[in-house]
Amino acid sequence: MTDATDHLVLFMPSGKRGRFATDTPVLEAARQLGVHVESVCGGRGICGRCQVEVQEGVFAKHGITSSNEHISAFGGNETRYAEKRDLKAGRRLSCSAKILGDLVIDIPQDAVVNAQVVRKDSDGRVIERNPAIQMCYVEVEEPDMHKPLGDLDRLLQAVEADWGFKNVTVDAYLYGQVQQILRKGNWKVTAAIHEPLHGGPATLVALYPGLKNEAYGIACDIGSTTIAMHLSSLLSGRTLASSGASNPQIRFGEDLMSRVSYVMMNPDGREGMTKAVREALNELIDKVCAQGEVDRADILDAVFVGNPIMHHLFLGIDPTELGGAPFALAVSGAVNVKSSEIGLPLNPGARVYMLPCIAGHVGADAAAATLTEGPHRQDEMMLLVDVGTNAEIVLGNSSRTVAASSPTGPAFEGAEISCGQRAAPGAIERIRINPETLEPRYRVIGIEPWSDEPGFDEAAAKVGVTGVCGSGIIEIIAEMYLAGIITEDGVINGDLAARSPRIIGNGRTFSYLLRDGEQRLMVTQNDVRAIQLAKAALYAGIKLLMDKQGIDHVDRIGLAGAFGSFIDPKYALVLGLVPDCDLERVKAVGNAAGTGARMALLNRSHRREIEATVTRIEKIETALESKFQDHFVNAMALPNKIDAFPRLAEVVKLPERSMDTAAADGVEPGAARRRGGRRNRS
Amino acid sequence: MTDATDHLVLFMPSGKRGRFATDTPVLEAARQLGVHVESVCGGRGICGRCQVEVQEGVFAKHGITSSNEHISAFGGNETRYAEKRDLKAGRRLSCSAKILGDLVIDIPQDAVVNAQVVRKDSDGRVIERNPAIQMCYVEVEEPDMHKPLGDLDRLLQAVEADWGFKNVTVDAYLYGQVQQILRKGNWKVTAAIHEPLHGGPATLVALYPGLKNEAYGIACDIGSTTIAMHLSSLLSGRTLASSGASNPQIRFGEDLMSRVSYVMMNPDGREGMTKAVREALNELIDKVCAQGEVDRADILDAVFVGNPIMHHLFLGIDPTELGGAPFALAVSGAVNVKSSEIGLPLNPGARVYMLPCIAGHVGADAAAATLTEGPHRQDEMMLLVDVGTNAEIVLGNSSRTVAASSPTGPAFEGAEISCGQRAAPGAIERIRINPETLEPRYRVIGIEPWSDEPGFDEAAAKVGVTGVCGSGIIEIIAEMYLAGIITEDGVINGDLAARSPRIIGNGRTFSYLLRDGEQRLMVTQNDVRAIQLAKAALYAGIKLLMDKQGIDHVDRIGLAGAFGSFIDPKYALVLGLVPDCDLERVKAVGNAAGTGARMALLNRSHRREIEATVTRIEKIETALESKFQDHFVNAMALPNKIDAFPRLAEVVKLPERSMDTAAADGVEPGAARRRGGRRNRS
Predict the structure, then answer these.
(1) Same domain for B490 and B580?
(2) Last residue of a domain, which of B147, B178, B209?
(3) Residue B514: inside a domain, yes or no?
(4) N or C terminus: fewer CB in 10 A for chain A?
(5) Considering only alpha carbons, which residue of chain B is nearest residue A157?
(6) Both A35 and A61 in a single domain?
(7) How far is the alpha carbon of B239 from chain A, nearest alpha carbon, in Å?
(8) Which residues of chain B have pLDDT under 50?
(9) pLDDT of residue B5
(10) Which residue in B has a C-alpha nearest to residue A196's C-alpha?
(11) For residues A473 and A530, is the Cβ–Cβ distance under 8 A?
(12) What is the ipTM metric for this complex?
């Protein structure tokens, strides 16, 4: 027998470790180290939530020889549990299993207790669980004439004794229900306790008779165009359903600024838009509940993110102030309300949390993306861009983070492009141009082969080829540049009309014919200019942040949002949308905002983390920075008039740079400044 | 010049004192000593709430020579304030006036700032103010693109900087209003901040543009028969209006038990009764607001007390469990909800506080009466009795307090008495019987002269003499005993029929004819028995508490409630309703429950005090005490079969005690026990 306090226990995946006396329950050891192991029943061996696995072997690096012989024998509560429920071989209940020697303990992330099918996990990310709402099973003393404490008061006594929550407050709706629930559960109940983030008493938000071994939450990104929602188990962390819908506010205006105008010009405009988005959210909740086979009343927590205008309209706040300088947010800090207070019928005690907004144009969605990608958690300098519409830009590392928004306008969504369209079947999304022949080949959404492969024409006849989507527009401009069709100043070279019938003159300028036929798709000089203006605005914003950081290159780039997911990093660099970077370190990060919402849903520490981070992020107002104009003009060139792209040049043969640095035709001084006036577009 | 830290300052009426440096503002000195001085503007000299007065003279006891020369000269903010508003001669603004020497400072309780007429103060009691809701005037930084903190966040920053409230949470309804209010007030606003009693962040519950120099609260005692409400200024403490109404639940049942039965037998019974009482409260709120010329939306806080069944029905809790053993309260602790959550439209952020209940039959009203009379604050042993219906009894001093209820039944309200009626015009309320002639003289509600004085008959012809009210019944039984008409065992002595025509035989027993004529008013043997049963139950309950305390007499007696206000302490003692006591120390304490509610409204420390006190009060369940039966049988006698009343005997000539201690005729063993079954009557 080793010394009583000599057992080294390492918990994975957290890597936290400590020494514990013989017979310490594994759950207790985890608690002492701050390792979150779920437990609803408080160690009674009935909920099965606290499953762990012993990793056997010699872990030389940690100096641990871990063995199933170093843990108490399977039995007691575990046997009883395994008889009634499914307990995988090798799994132990950490409330019952006791430490007898050195151990490496794995906390599996898939301890599925109920029979629910996990249909889809929104991404592969494992989020350590520590939800804001804790399910606490308690056994309450029966009423006693000698001790006339109320039923609720005895319940709260039990919650304090077993779970340590003191002075617990109570949601008003429960006063009228507590006696019936206690009697229905025969004095055994599960209390859902919400613990506030910044101190103070916790709150009893829901109460269930008997053992309630599940609780759910939703995480939702309210985009101006699309709403994405995930339904997750607060106990296992698993995502049970994910769904999306169009934002019905689109009928009030496609872009954000037109929605703000609608509010300003219609007396009931704000109410109408708030109602529309909440109705859409309600329908989405129905949808994910049906998919996940979850009762809506079992949803106890919800996290929402969105850009500032979506954030305000969702909360019922008039966004008019966001429509003009100084772009004052009504509230920038994290918002905590009850779902019932904002017209979302979930459990009557359900809570809603919204991440903080970073600035008037850098919203809770950008905060959520920051939480997901964590520039503030790493030493490398990371650039995080949500290439929306109004681009949200975060740049930083563990020592300093800065953020800004940039008025890219709607060109990237195809709105100012002659052949532009939404990403939908029939839209060209990939393009290559042969630099010799200037002939294009392309790929169309909904059609498997490329345009020069067998079967394309038949499929195209069926699906139609109707336009070019955002990622396609990036590629075609970049490919035109790489093929020499446009100069670094963005001028379509009319001399090439002699070489190819695809170069077509229209008055003073030229166009490139992408596809002929019933629906002619052309890239005009104006289209190129629109993309130049948009990318120059984005780049100038990024450049201002780089100036603040005092750096001339970034280590990593994350491209967030739907648009970011589809553009090819190479073309983003060729176009000079983002600064030079090792191509392998430029990544689409998907719906990082939605993932951040899910992190905040499943772990309250992430709420604390992002709230603290946002207060430290320095906000740059691009409109107030005198250098914005210079950066903007330089960024009109492809990829940039003065910034070099050496890392890109290692993998892509860039055209020779011309010595002529004159302002490009058609870009008048002041174009950048004027864009400031439409910073809220889309 | 004296030493810089050498000025002794004494604040009255609190008596707190300390030494302060020259130039310390008086308000600051008060804050440091924990002396509550109201201030809405935070020391800017504009609200006028922080008025004080210098007491001039030599205060030898305190070693202070106080003089107006020991305070800075009147001027600056004070002059500006006095030009615009009324500032009484001698009054100083403590935020502006600075300490220059030793001072005795009086904090007046009548610093009326607005022109409101104070119509009525519910009693003479001065309650030190420290309300749960504080009005905090702040000046908020305007939005700045360089520091994109939200409007609300900057407001909360100002509240923290000027008032010290950290991590303030926000009532959800304010999110949509904050921007408009800030702009309307030109960035000067008054925040109403609610500070929780048991730690944790305070909450912003209301927000007003500019300086909001008033806030109101209501204090209400919901009796089973009558509802009493006071409207008070949270800032000055003054009561602006008081009003009362019948409890409309009477239509569901006169006494409490019949209301519980109604709930049990009617599916919507609970909803109906909750609705009825809330409607009545709403009407009363309208009434006190009209009287006090106060806008209902300016009511920010409300305190309610009531017996357990009223408490539960008001909160929307089914009281069925209170209808039978073990008489389980749904909640016994103090209740904190928003007024909007219980259907009382006040300010949308208004809070509601209910005092704790002591036990299943000793409610928040008894707790409030305890708070008012404070047996727990004194060394003397005080008995506090609400001689209702179900009597609530508290007995204690600063070292120990015990409480119980006793099933007195409705006799004291006249319900089981042949000539009984409510206290209303036409009811006999005072009676004297001439021991020689056995002739009565009496006084009737609504008639000024006594029955043997000129003018009585004319008035009686108009008003009518229709019955005897509760206090009259006590007096007539006591006077009959003193006159020898009834024996100490409660038997009407038939031998006296020979001496007086007022003694009339009916079969085996006799009656006393109180008034002849159109409406004959008799006191029958059954009437005497009913009062004996009621008073014996009350006395037995008191006696159990005295046993617990190990005492044979009490130092003081407080008779609470409407009934307690009208009975003559002497007759209560003659009858043996309460134990022997110095007559001068038996006092009616009025609506002590309503006063307690007002104390909790105006001073949050009183909430803390009563919550702590109630947890320490020992609850005695009379039905479980074996000695209850013995005490009850002994208490059937007048004043008591075994307990002496020596202090009473000093002022009242009591009849000789008979040696015969046999059980009185008609009181079968078990009568007391059976009464236990109707402990919830009325």
Answers:
(1) no
(2) B209
(3) yes
(4) N
(5) B333
(6) yes
(7) 29
(8) 1-2, 114-121, 660-682
(9) 64
(10) B200
(11) no
(12) 0.88
List the domain range (segments joined by +) for residue B67: 7-106
- Dihedral angle at the C-alpha atoms of B7, B11, B15, B19, nearest 10 degrees? -20
pLDDT in tens, B50-80: 899 999 999 998 899 999 999 999 988 899 9
Q: Are residues B567 and B674 in the same domain?
A: yes
Same structural domain for residues A428 and A507?
yes
User: Which of the 8 DSSP states describes residue B466?
Assistant: -
Q: Does residue B100 sit within a domain?
A: yes
| Pair B509, B537 in one domain | no
Contact B347/A at CB under 8 A: no
Q: Which long-range contacts (CB under 8 A, 24 or more apart) does A438-441 make?
A: A438/A483, A438/A485, A438/A496, A438/A499, A438/A500, A438/A502, A438/A503, A439/A500, A439/A502, A440/A476, A440/A479, A440/A502, A440/A514, A440/A515
For residues A296-324, average pLDDT: 96
Whether A674 shows a pLDDT value over 90: the answer reads no
For residue A321, what is the nearest residue in chain B, using CA coordinates? B179
User: In this complex, do A172 and B341 lie within 8 Å of one another by their Cβ atoms?
Assistant: yes
Exposed (0-12), middle (13-18) or buried (19+): which is A458, by Cβ within 10 Å? exposed
Q: Do A330 and B623 touch (CB under 8 A)?
A: no
Model confidence band, residue A111 (pLDDT cutoffs 50, 70, 90): low
Of B523, B558, B583, the one marking the end of a domain is: B523
Cβ atoms A217, A131 nearer than 8 A = yes
A78 with A177, same domain: the answer is no
Q: How confident is the model at residue A84 (pLDDT cuts 50, 70, 90)?
A: confident
For A113-166, what is each residue's pLDDT tens digit? 544 444 344 566 778 889 999 999 999 999 998 888 999 999 999 999 999 999
- On whether residue A589 sits in a domain, the answer given is yes
- pLDDT at res. A121: 47
**From the CA of B384, how many Å to the nearest CA of chain A?**
20
**What digits encode the pLDDT tens for the residues B498-532?**
999 999 998 899 999 999 988 899 999 999 999 99
Tokens of A576: 């000079």
Closest residue in A to B318 (Cα) is A176
In chain A, what residues touch B326 (CB-CB under 8 Å)? Answer: 143-145
Q: Where are the beta strands (DSSP E) in B83-195?
A: 91-93, 103-106, 133-139, 169-170, 188-194
Burial of A513 (0-12, 13-18, 19+ CB in 10 A): middle
Same domain flag for A137 and A90: no
Residues B388, B564: Cα–Cα separation, whole Å: 8
Contact B167 A341 (CB under 8 A): no
List, for residues B355-396, the tens digit of each pLDDT value: 999 999 999 999 999 999 999 999 999 999 998 778 899 999
How do residues A560-582 score in pLDDT, each as one tens digit?
Answer: 987 788 889 999 999 999 999 99
User: Per-residue pLDDT tens for A186-207?
Assistant: 999 999 999 999 888 999 999 9
SS (HEC) of B245-309: EECHHHHHCCCHHHHHHHHHHCCCHHHHHHHHHHHHHHHHHHHHHHHHCCCHHHEEEEEEEECHH
Give A358's Cβ-side CA count (13 Å radius).
31
A45 and A91 part of one domain: yes
CATH code: domain of residue B89: 3.10.20.30
* Interchain contact, A150 vs B357, CB within 8 Å: yes
Tally of domains in chain A? 4
| CA-to-CA dists, residue A142 to A150, A152, A182, A183, B309, angstroms | 10, 11, 9, 9, 20
Radius of gyration of chain A (CA): 29
User: Does A39 score more than 80 pLDDT?
Assistant: yes
Residue A506, SS3 per DSSP: strand
Please classify residue A658 by burial: count the beta carbons closer than 10 Å to its beta carbon, then call 0-12 exposed, 13-18 middle and 19+ buried: exposed
B140: CB partners within 8 A, 6+ apart: B151, B154, B155, B158, B182, B187, B188, B189
